[in-house]
Every structure is written in structure tokens, then in C-alpha cells.
Structure prediction request, 428 residues.
Amino acid sequence: MNISTEKTAGWANYPRIVAAVARPENRDELADYLHHTGQCIARGNGKSYGDASLAPNMVSMLGFRKILEFDREKGEIDCEAGVLLADILPLIVPAGWFFYVTPGIKAITIGGAIASDVHGKNHPVAGCFSNWLISFELMRADGEVLTCSRSENAGLFWQTCGGMGWTGIILSARFRLRRISSVHLRQKTVEAGDFEALWRAFEENGHWPYAAGWVDGLSPRHRGVALFAEHLESDAPDMPLRYEVPTPKNIPFYAPSGLLNPLSTRIHNYFYHRKNKSGERLADLESYFYPLDRTLNWNRLYGRRGFVQYQFCLPENAAYDGLIRVLDAIRAHRQAPFLTVLKKHGERPPEAVHSFPVKGWSLALDFPRTGGLPALVRRLDDIVRASAGKIYLTKDACSAPDLGRIDPAAFGEEKFWSLLKGRILSGG
Ligand SMILES: Cc1cc2nc3c(=O)[nH]c(=O)nc-3n(C[C@H](O)[C@H](O)[C@H](O)COP(=O)(O)OP(=O)(O)OC[C@H]3O[C@@H](n4cnc5c(N)ncnc54)[C@H](O)[C@@H]3O)c2cc1C
Prediction:
């Protein structure tokens, strides 16, 4: 089995560590590796932003990349954990199926989707990835393989969904798909001059299954844009659907650090707001669900210093005031979030103890790593804590440890672990 020492990071290129990365090709190699290695963590495709998939010993699961079964009648997929959503789409879309839940990127593995229990723009109606998960196989530290579902090893099933890889290594999974009869969606855009209008747009358009908002983190009134969408019904539902992926652009080099600064962000926000005028239009699956995938390696725009994505979720009763306080704090600290995504969340099953969303609202904010960022993160942590909110661990790199960290001891599998938090706060 190949094991190499590499400088590695998550999607945000911070933190960056030197790690021994093992690349097992089959279960025997993986079991052997676990037997001989101390603490380690599984790595999918490394698209979590912060330190979720980082540890001195990392196990890449990209060697487990077989689709084992696609039941076209029932709409079920059985595949190995290293299969990407992007591997599955060309198979299922022409047959009239899509994911119930997809994050805003398709280059993630099924193992990563389960371990983060990812959500999409339709959480109030579809929940998280675990809502549609039937079962998975999990290799524990001693090499034993357990099948986990709602009826078999149910405790371990729920601890693993959103458990950030700390219960063991997911080998394969079976999950449900949803029917579609068109590759198009109807999309409605609502411009909002301030945060109150943005909030109102969500309330008034609550019947759309998909919803996400953009907030201008630099505008004093927190203006924004809300995008709503629904799948179109096709006139010819029995025809195979055409799944096309436009050739992506690539950012070949790291940009100079500082390219994304308050001025360039202000210019970007101006054009983004101008481009997104209120109205309705047709969108396709790619442009609606995966707009960022049209530019490969866009994370390099933040330069070698990398960036931090801060995503938090506040419960319904505290959300409006908490979000305003967060947006005001960003302006007061003179930080400029380049990307922002606002989402509304619904109930989650009580067993899904580690799933990130709670009934309420989440906001994701991408900040270039600057000297002033640690102080802002501390301030945002305080607001999230005071609002009884949560941090999304799959994005996190530097929040206070008390905000939603998982205690590995709770799993009785202390072999699997991630880096300790708090590096930039302590200046490391
Ligand atoms: C542009 C972009 C948009 C995104 N949008 C969203 C979004 O809308 N909603 C959302 O929820 N997330 C979103 N994400 C986050 C992303 O979906 C998650 O971080 C996902 O877990 C990444 O999967 P991965 O395969 O790259 O896993 P990695 O980043 O490699 O690992 C993520 C976690 O999963 C664990 N893990 C991976 N494979 C296994 C395995 N086989 N067994 C056990 N544990 C494993 C790792 O240990 C780690 O804790 C986005 C990320 C990007 C870059």
C-alpha cells in the first residue's frame, strides 16, 4: 500500500500540515493499516474547508471508488465510500433520478457526505443526507466491519452521520434518490435592499422547495439577493434526460495574498447585485446546484495563506437578531466576506445528534486570512454561543472548542481523531 508524507490541507488551504497519507486499495490493506497505526482519520476528497480531514495519519478513501448497484426502478444506489457525487450524476440523471440532498459541490465522496451529514438548499423539506441513507458498512479500529442502518447497529448509524469520521471508516453505503423528469429548474430571484427585505423574501416564498440567499457583508443595511427554485416537470417524462457538464475554467496558480480584499469584494458585490435582478428564469442542474464547480481550484484566489469559512446555525427564535449582530460585527471589524450563503433549516430527526442544522437559519461566510480575523472569529463565536447556535465542524478551522466539538471518547473509538482546534487564535 502506498503511504507518502505530504504537506496537506482542506479546501480552504488552512491549516496546512505535514501528514502520512495512506492509500489502501482494498479492505484487507485498510484493516492491516488500522492494525499497525495509532490514531488516524479518514479523508474523502478533502473538500471540507478546515481541519476535519486532517491528522498526522490520514487514510485516503479515493481507492474505494466502485458503484456497486444502481436500482433504476426503486431509485437506490449502492456504492463504495470514495465514489464522488460527480461519478454518480452521469448515471442517474439520464435515468430520471437526482439526489434528495446535495451540497453546493459535486466533487465530494459519499463517505464525506455521511460523515458531515451534508445539507442542501432544501433542508426544510428534505433534511440532511442521512434522511435518505438506508445503510452503510463501517470498519472499526480493530478491522471489524459492521453494517449500520436504522434497525441494525442503529446507535452507531446515528453517531456516524455527522460524526466527522470519528466512529470508524465508512466503506460503502446505500441511499435513496428522488425522481426528476427534467434537467431544468424554474428559478426566482428577489433583490432585497436590506436584511429585513431579504428575510421577508424567504417568508413570502416559503413554498419553493429550494432557497438560498446572498448577503452583502459590506453593505450597512445588509442588502442581499434570495434565489428560489423548483424542479420543472417535463412534457416528455419517458425520454432519457441529457446530463451535460460545461467544461470548467481553472485557476492554475495561487493568486497573490490580498487579491480578495475589501475593495475587490466591494466591486464583486456591486456586480453580483446588479447581475441578479428580480425575476424568473430557467436554470439547469449544474448552474443551479453547482455554480462554483464551473471554476476549478477557485480556492487559490485566496492566495497561499488560505481562508476560513465560518458557517453557523442559529435556532429560529434567536436567528434574526443574531444574524444582524454577526453582520454588524463583521463591519465593525472591517473584515470582508467574499462569499456568503444564507439558508433556512427545518426540523431534524431527534436521533441525528451530530447533524449540523437545527431548526432556524445558517450563514456561511468566507474570509481571507488576515491579521484581524482571529479577533472577529472570537466575536462571532460569542454571538453564536449567546444565541445557543452551532458551528459547522466540516467548515471549521479555528472556532472555540466548546462550540459543537465532538468528544471522541463518546464513540469508544479514540483511534479516530482530528487536529485540535484553536491554532489561529493562539497565533499558530
Ligand atoms: C464549494 C463547496 C460547497 C459546499 N457546500 C456545502 C453545502 O451546501 N452543504 C454542506 O453540508 N456542505 C457543503 N460543503 C462541504 C462538503 O460537502 C463537506 O465538507 C463534505 O464532507 C466533503 O466531502 P469530502 O469527500 O471532500 O470529505 P473530506 O473533506 O475529505 O472529509 C470530511 C469529513 O468526512 C470524514 N470522512 C470522509 N470520508 C470518510 C469515510 N470513508 N469514512 C469516515 N469518515 C470519512 C473525514 O474524516 C472528515 O471528517 C461544501 C464544500 C465546498 C468546497
